[in-house]
């Protein structure tokens, strides 16, 4: 029997476990905070590797004594390392496919049952499907949290069909450049006509045994075998594909943007939860002071996320494109952003050229930056968290998609949501200069800013007291507390 709480109800105890990468951890932590604000006891499970990184960055330095919210760790099944970089996607995918984390997770659930509160349900990242096996063995319901767009989930769910239809694997590498990727895929429910190249990049396989492809395909397929599925989106943004997903699965909840929902939490609760940070890298605080000195909508914020890498040559082209645009910019250059380099090397001449106009740092509080009055545009890789955070702030985007879901996100952002423009993969400094100027000062940029502001309003409505995301959150709480 679970311990009773006020009113005689048993204490709901939800175990939250993200896929071990920056954006997934951030989204799961936000959802965990929302659930905690609804009187649910939270156990948050990181891998040992990422827990060390969160401690190093200061994200967890003040969580001791936080009532009803605890952290646990499990090994990730990979070789031990002290590196401070994002882990290899294929290696993590293989570890998950081979259930290397499963025994430790099962043991943790048993320990929590005996020593804390009986676990009433598990909220697992959809890309950690082994958790459903562990839960099933102990009779615990599992809900998947998908930290991707609903349209991206639908595309991943159709990977199996693409394989069965013979659309993939590609016959050879020439199919990457001979026009085959422009093939129209017109059979994905709720997504209309979309090109093969616009689907998540891991569909471009040469071998049906590709580890990452199979990891993504099997993860999406397992969505049918859990109690419910949560998508970090809001209805107005992806209504057509959300309607299809609602018809295919039971207990579907669209809950987002997460930060706007967190903003609704009462101030005393919010202050207690602020001690839990999200970032695997330490945040640079002085960039906010720099933004304070700039005019409204005058700064373009540049951040390519936690996984994207660039060559030293690309870095210089992008840098000089920003410099030559004559726009102010805040640029996040992670320590591991540059392939084969340990530090950014843009040179003295570049730093002199951007004096008083450019600010470069290694990491920041992205939502604080995007909501700053001086930020008028965002040059992004097109990760889902970044898009949702930008729309929540009403900031239009340039998108430079790199891998995974970013191609699909970019396609929707540019063509369906009309609040972004795509940056060519091989963009040179003149391309960057023109696009940045168009984003910040051009007529198209003005139209995109207006559209982004409309999405911000709709997102705020969804997260309001009677909004779809707020109501779905309440329904999810009931499911997890049952």
Can I get a quick summary?
With 482 residues, the protein is of the alpha/beta class.
Tell me what you see in this structure.
Helix 13 crosses helix 18 (429-441) and helix 18 crosses helix 19. This protein has a seven-stranded parallel sheet with strand order 3-2-1-4-5-8-9, with helices on both faces. A six-stranded parallel sheet has the order 12-11-10-13-14-15, with helices on both faces. Strands 6-7 form a two-stranded antiparallel ribbon. It is of the alpha/beta class and 482 residues long. The protein has helices spanning 22-36, 48-57, 89-97, 102-115, 130-137, 150-157, 159-164, 211-221, 239-248, 258-262, 267-273, 286-292, 312-324, 348-353, 366-370, 384-393, 406-416, 429-441, 443-462, 468-481; strands at 13-17, 41-47, 69-74, 121-125, 142-146, 184-185, 194-195, 228-231, 252-254, 299-303, 328-332, 358-361, 375-380, 397-399, 420-422.
> Helix proportion of residues, in percent?
40-55%
Tell me the structural class: alpha/beta
- Overall morphology: globular
Number of helices: 20
How much of the polypeptide forms β-strand, as a percent range? 5-15%
Averaged pLDDT, please? 92
Which radius of gyration do the C-alpha atoms yield? 22 Å
Mind summarizing the main beta sheet?
Answer: 7 strands, parallel
Structure summary, number of beta strands: 15
The termini sit apart by 13 Å
> Strand order, biggest sheet?
3-2-1-4-5-8-9
Which residue ranges are poorly predicted, with pLDDT under 50 across at least 5 consecutive positions? Answer: 1-8
């Amino acid at each position: 029997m679970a311990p009773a709480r006020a009113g005689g109800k048993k204490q709901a105890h939800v175990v939250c476990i993200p896929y071990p990468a920056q954006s997934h951890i951030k989204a799961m932590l936000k959802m965990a905070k929302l659930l905690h604000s609804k009187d649910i006891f939270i156990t948050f499970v990181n891998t040992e590797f990422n827990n060390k990184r969160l401690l190093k960055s200061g994200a967890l330095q003040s969580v001791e004594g936080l009532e009803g919210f605890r952290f646990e760790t499990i090994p990730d099944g990979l070789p031990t390392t002290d590196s401070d970089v994002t882990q290899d996607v294929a290696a993590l995918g293989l570890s998950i496919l081979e259930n290397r984390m499963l025994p430790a997770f099962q043991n943790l659930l048993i320990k929590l049952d005996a020593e804390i509160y009986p676990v009433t349900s598990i909220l697992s990242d959809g890309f950690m499907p082994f958790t459903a096996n562990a839960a099933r063995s102990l009779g615990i319901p599992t809900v998947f949290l998908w930290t991707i767009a609903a349209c991206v989930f639908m595309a991943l769910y159709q990977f199996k069909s693409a394989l069965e239809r013979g659309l993939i694997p590609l016959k050879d590498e020439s199919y990457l450049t001979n026009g085959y990727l422009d093939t129209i895929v017109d059979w994905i429910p709720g997504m209309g006509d979309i090109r093969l190249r616009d689907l998540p990049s891991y569909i471009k396989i040469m071998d049906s045994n590709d580890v990452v492809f199979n990891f993504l395909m099997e993860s999406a397929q397992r969505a049918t075998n859990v109690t419910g599925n949560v998508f970090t989106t809001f209805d107005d943004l992806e209504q057509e594909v959300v309607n299809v997903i609602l018809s295919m699965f039971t207990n579907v909840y669209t809950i987002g943007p997460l930060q706007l929902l967190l903003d609704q939490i009462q101030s005393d609760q919010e202050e207690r939860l602020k001690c839990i940070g999200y970032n695997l890298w330490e945040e640079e605080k002085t960039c906010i002071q720099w933004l304070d000195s700039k005019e409204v909508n005058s700064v373009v914020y540049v951040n390519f996320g936690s996984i994207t890498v660039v060559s030293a040559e690309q870095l210089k082209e992008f840098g000089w494109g920003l410099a030559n645009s004559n726009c102010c910019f805040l640029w996040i250059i992670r320590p591991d952003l540059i392939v084969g380099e340990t530090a950014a090397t843009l040179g003295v001449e570049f730093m002199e050229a951007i004096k008083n106009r450019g600010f470069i740092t290694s990491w920041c509080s992205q939502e604080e930056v995007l909501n700053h009055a001086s930020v008028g545009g965002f040059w992004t890789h097109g990760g889902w968290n970044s898009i949702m955070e930008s729309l929540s702030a009403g900031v239009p985007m340039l998108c430079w998609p790199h891998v995974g879901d970013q191609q699909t996100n970019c396609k929707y952002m540019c063509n369906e949501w009309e609040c972004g423009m795509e940056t060519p993969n091989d963009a040179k400094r003149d391309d960057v200069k023109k696009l940045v100027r168009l984003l910040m000062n051009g007529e198209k940029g003005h139209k995109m800013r207006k559209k982004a502001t409309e999405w911000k309003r709709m997102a705020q409505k969804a997260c309001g007291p009677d909004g779809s995301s707020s109501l779905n959150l309440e329904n999810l709480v009931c499911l997890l507390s049952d």
